[in-house]
Specification:
CATH superfamily of one domain: NAD(P)-binding Rossmann-like Domain
Largest sheet: 8 strands, mixed
CATH topology of one domain: Rossmann fold
Shape: globular
Order of helices and strands: EHEEEHEHEEHEEHEHEHHHEHH
Number of helices: 11
Distance between the termini: 38 Å
Radius of gyration: 19 Å
Strand content: 15-25%
CATH class of one domain: Alpha Beta
CATH architecture of one domain: 3-Layer(aba) Sandwich
Length: 303
């Protein structure tokens, strides 16, 4: 019988790509959703309601692996107090609900793999390169990621191999970072943000999903891993390359930092600051990135 992978957040941008990769590798996939959906070949949908603490337990009990991607988008709405609570709860309470089912039935799965983000290191600018041992930041994204990972550690307490994927800015077609940036740049109105000197640790969605696949198949993989390309890409460099993919040179001045703060409020800090992040740990396992060159990665996403 094919091994089953349960995915939370499976209907999102990353989840859809990962589902296809898993199916191609011969896995069956279960997906937790907030509304019922018809099953398709290789995919079974189950309903859950995190707010009301309800879940179809069969989804958890038939799983060999669980990949936890669920979470409200960090950059979807202004960070009000209510929105901040939604962002944190959507990541932590959802994982706790699954943990409760596993503990209740004394169910052992082969691995629990949780999304996290390189934002755990804090919204700061600097030349230092963050490794998995770098101290976390105390800003909102940093604290959110810490709570996210602390919840994942509950599964390790059950004796389950637990992996936390600290993800950079994800590049892919029809989603991720480019979904927000592409319309502006395609219209010829692209420009750098703030100083433009802030680093942008990025990763192509193919490589990110390949890391998730590695996380369930490689039994030596445990703990936190940075999933990003460490090529010192800055916002200015990224913006110039993206404009060139659309056939023009940037002609507009940088968007001033104060304008972004007026529009986005506290959320602007996540755009105006960025750190260099090492991927040496994942590479030490023998993992090789397919997309290491930003120009080629952008071309693949836009063509």
């Amino acid at each position: 019988m094919n091994k089953n992978v349960l995915i939370t957040g499976g209907t999102g941008f990353i989840g859809k790509y990962l589902t296809k990769m898993l199916l191609d590798k011969g896995y069956t996939v279960s997906i937790l959703t907030r509304s019922s959906k018809p099953n398709t070949e290789g995919i079974t949908y189950y309903v859950w309601d995190v707010t009301n603490r309800s879940i179809d337990e069969e989804a958890v009990l038939r799983a060999d692996y669980i990949i936890h991607l669920a979470g409200e988008g960090i950059a979807e709405k202004r960070w009000t107090a209510k929105r901040k609570a939604e962002i944190i709860d959507s990541r932590t309470l959802s994982a706790q609900l699954i943990y409760t089912i596993l503990k209740k039935h004394n169910k052992k799965i082969e691995a629990f793999v949780s999304a996290s983000a390189v934002g755990i290191y804090g919204a700061l600018n600097g030349e230092g390169i963050c490794t998995e041992n770098t101290l976390p930041g105390n800003d909102f994204v940093g604290v959110t990621c810490q709570k996210w990972e602390k919840t994942a550690d509950l599964f390790a307490d059950l004796g389950i191999r637990t992996v936390k994927i600290r993800t950079g800015l994800v590049l892919g077609r029809n989603g991720g970072l480019l979904k927000k940036m592409a319309p502006i740049f395609k219209a010829g109105l692209g420009s750098a943000l703030g100083s433009g000197k802030q680093y942008m640790p990025w990763i192509h969605i193919y490589d990110l999903c390949a890391i998730y696949l590695e996380a369930i198949e490689n039994k030596d993989m445990t703990g936190a891993y940075n999933a990003t390309i460490n090529d010192s890409t800055t916002n200015s460099f990224f913006s110039k390359l993206l404009a060139r993919e659309y056939g023009y040179f940037i002609w507009l001045p940088n968007v001033p930092a104060f304008v972004l703060r007026l529009i986005l409020g506290e959320m602007a800090t996540a755009i105006l600051a960025g750190r260099r992040v090492s991927s040496d740990k994942i590479k030490s396992l023998g993992f090789r990135f397919k997309f290491k060159n930003l120009k080629k990665a952008l071309a693949d996403c836009i063509k």
